[in-house]
Amino acid sequence: MAAHPNIGVSVEEYIARFIDHSEKPACEYVDGLLIPKPMAGDDHSAVQSNLVFYLRSRYNKTLKVRPELHAKVKQTRFRIPDVMAVDRQQPFEGRYPGPGNPPFLCIEIKSPDDALAHLWDKCREYHSWGVPYCWVIDPQSRRLWEYFPGDAAPRPCSDRISAGSIEILADEVFEDL
Prior knowledge:
The chain is an alpha+beta fold. It has helices at residues 11-20, 42-59, 116-129, 170-173, and strands spanning 27-30, 33-36, 63-67, 71-74, 77-79, 83-87, 105-109, 133-138, 143-147, 155-157, 160-163, 166-169. A six-stranded mixed beta sheet has the order 3-6-7-8-9-10, sandwiched between helices. It starts with 10 loop residues before the first helix and ends with a helix.
């Protein structure tokens, strides 16, 4: 059965279908509803690849970098950040991070069908889970934002994006676009 955003399912069914058996299209789970992830295009894929490459090549000793990993942000909510970085000093147990063990950084890359307001909402949800750093990246407009807990609004970035001591140049983020 194909996923549909209006079909209610249990947490157990979500885990069985989308985590254990990787049913497609990938869906997030929000309070019983399946929310399909927007289909990514070439620009989205290039940015995601660049982020994984640069984060892994520079920060592999301190961070575990994972693209498209399910995250249980609350008992009834699973999100799938485009990229997540986990502090190696605070690893998660099991197949995905859950309540009580948030990652260091969650990154959302805007797809053409995404609304920025929706991505900001996801960042606020990550912050309430305990994630200290969130990035939002728009490949089409080549814009970057950092979003930290307590910020009134996301911070636009021009030449680089950072999370604590972690930093990537905008030219590296948008390489090969």
